[in-house]
Amino acid sequence: MSFQPVFAQFWEKVKESIENKTYAKLTLAKTIGDTELKNIYVRPVLSEEGFKLSLTARYKTEEIESFHTLDEAFFVLAPYMNNPFLTALLFTTENDITFKLNKKRVGSIIEQAPTFKNASDVIIEMKEKGL
Q1: How many Å separate Cα 31 from the centre of its chain?
Q2: Assign residue 80 a region: left if phi > 0, alpha if psi is -120 to 50, beta otherwise?
């Protein structure tokens, strides 16, 4: 069974958190073995072109940042699930949502109490500007 449909459901929760202005941060983590790529952090940014997501890929020796629309970011991040990441953590002001792959590579979504009380600064700015 493929985990992609479950990851797509998880991504819908990412979109909802941005639309509802509750998004705090998103991290891809828990690699399989010792990999060159350690984490990918996803932060919202406002640029001249409007709302984008900043993807910061943290490697052993460097960090590479790229900017994408919400839909582009899904297609950039999805291939990293299962290679090398087993977990994606979405932090919102309402709850923490975790996408996990088990040993059989079956995806699941777990919701827990929120870690963050406040949304990302960019999300707060968007709320204030009515974007």
Answers
A1: 15
A2: alpha
